[in-house]
Design goal:
The protein is about 75% helix and about 0% strand. By secondary structure, the chain is mainly α. α1 packs across α4 and α5 packs parallel to α12.
């Protein structure tokens, strides 16, 4: 049940532009198991991962299906406080992740590693300015359009394994977010299958890549993750269109308190 519920939480955030599903997976302490299980799918040991991924996948699908309507309601009626809460959740988790990061080195962190942190943060920040550069029309679904949708799904799938990266935001940047959501609601199977196949392919490839980086370059990978998470705070706040009042700002504090409480009660992130 706890795997199912955490899958639901990740599924909910996958529908919110600017919020990374893998960020939530880390906060809930399931990121390591998820990444490892996904990396096994392309190996002879894939059967070991199926029980976990099956339960997690069902939860994620249920959460995503609910969020299309529930989170969409909150984002349209209470956008600022909702996104501020997500920003607070990320901020509240960063100190705990930093402690985990420095445990991977007995020496002072070199400048090149700080460069990795800054670069990954700026990567997320500057990507926000590309939003709405393209609007996709799928009335006449051509082969070229299908290839583009598959590529969009592939890039968006990185959000499941790369903390700080938002799949919904990537689809928004590519002009396919509204198309994907509306196609899912109306069960436009050609579009759903095109984007979905790209997501599956991307997850299989990216999971092994990130697993490799964590094993070979743990310190640099951890710092890159911190940079991505830090940049995602800007991504979340930047996407707010409503006026941000004092009450909305208070939801950042609520988000920080929620994560801090989870950490203190040991319902927290496991080692990456």
């Amino acid at each position: 049940m706890h795997i199912f519920l955490r899958g639901m939480a990740v599924g909910v955030t996958e529908s919110v532009p600017g919020v990374s599903g893998s960020t939530v997976a880390i906060i809930l302490g399931i990121y390591n198991q998820l990444l490892y299980s996904l990396s096994l799918l392309t190996t002879p040991r894939r059967k070991e991962a199926l029980p976990f991924l099956f339960v997690f996948g069902i939860g994620m699908v249920c959460g995503f299906g609910m969020s299309i309507y529930i989170v969409d309601y909150f984002l349209h009626n209470f956008q600022a406080p909702t996104l501020m809460f997500f920003a607070g959740v990320v901020l509240g988790f960063l100190p705990d992740l930093w402690k985990e990061t420095i445990s991977h080195t007995a020496f002072k962190i070199k400048w090149k590693y700080w460069g990795i942190l800054v670069f990954s943060c700026l990567l997320v920040v500057f990507s926000q300015f590309l939003v709405d550069v393209k609007v996709l029309d799928v009335e006449q679904l051509s082969i070229v359009t299908c290839i583009f949708l598959i590529a969009a799904g592939f890039l968006a799938s990185s959000a499941l394994v790369l903390p700080g990266m938002s799949g919904a935001l990537i689809l928004t940047i590519l002009g396919t977010y509204e198309v994907a959501v509306q196609s899912l609601k109306s069960m436009n199977l050609p579009v759903v299958l095109a984007v979905g196949s790209g997501v599956i392919l991307g997850v299989l490839v990216m999971s092994r890549f990130i697993q490799f980086l964590l094993k070979r370059y743990p310190l640099g990978t951890y710092l890159a993750i911190i940079g991505l998470l830090s940049g995602s705070v800007f991504a979340i706040i930047y996407s707010i269109e409503d006026q941000v009042g004092i009450a909305s700002l208070g939801f950042i504090i609520i988000g920080i308190i929620v994560v801090t409480t989870l950490t203190k009660t040991k319902i927290k992130v496991s080692e990456l």
